[in-house]
Amino acid sequence: MHHSRRRFFNGLMGLSLTTLAPYILFSKTENATHQEVKILPKGLRIGDTIGLIAPGYTFPAKVLEETKQTLTAMGFIPYYTERLNKRHGYFSNTDAERAKDLNHMFNNTEVDAVLCVRGGYGCTRIMNLIDYEAIKKNPKALIGFSDVTALLNGIYKMTGLVTFHGPVGSTLNDVYSQKSLSEILTSHRNLKSIHNTVLLPEYIGNPEYERYTITKGKAEGILCGGSLTLINALIGTPHEIDFTDTIVCIEDVEEAPYRIDRMLTQLIEGPTFKKATGIVFGVFAGCNKSTNPNSFTLKEVLIDRIKPLGIPAVYGMSFGHVAQNFTFPIGIRATFNTEEMVIRLMEKTVA
Class for domain 2-185, per CATH? Predict the structure, then answer.
């Protein structure tokens, strides 16, 4: 099975790809609230070294072994330090050691990209310990989702480095997820489109996987976002997201409808969320259930909170805490049409 996955991924990426040095992209946006200069990481190729970090929760040993097997089958070389999973309460290590590991991966010239083994709470605790200057000097792709949302958006804001909301090591063993990741992180295509997966039979009829338009329209803006919980956790910090001129991608997991309501309301009442150009919801797995018999459904909450904004918005895109999780670049300008439900990238994602 691993050999077949290797052949599949080799076909996607192409062995003839050449590695290009990271370069600086000057944004054409006139909005001073966003990065005037973006840094693109280099594109990946077969044989590159992927540094593994665990910036949040601890994890079972089998997760690391499975991650290593998947990366090896994909043609990459996994690398990690002794700090990776030393367990400190519910964290994979102390704040200082987790931050040290992240900083090490960016400073290490032998590492070509950085993949989070898993999410889980803890990323916001190390934001003030990150060496942002080192990241600027040694740009490389950072990949993950869930709690890693804080790192992805925070690092982009502080450095201009384009980061990637995509699978973590524990969820990478999926063909659709691997294909999406390879298309975004390789340089053989300049401009790319992100399409939904075919809905798996077991999800048909499940309202959490329904695909629908909340507000029709077309949008153009800078991609940002991730976990709703973490987007809100950044509010009031130096890493708070400025939603002006953005297409906001949002997902979450195992939150009751009233909690989704509360978090969206907080965003709406903030200074910039209403200035977004588009809102793309992923799958909110486990978020349509409540112990309150009078609860609104998830769909009712989303329509009630989002439709009055008049911003083009859809629900049900293939990203989030689901098996099939596409990768999207944070910091890249894109367009979105609610009728197509396709994200079209207007800029290169890697050098």
Answer: alpha beta
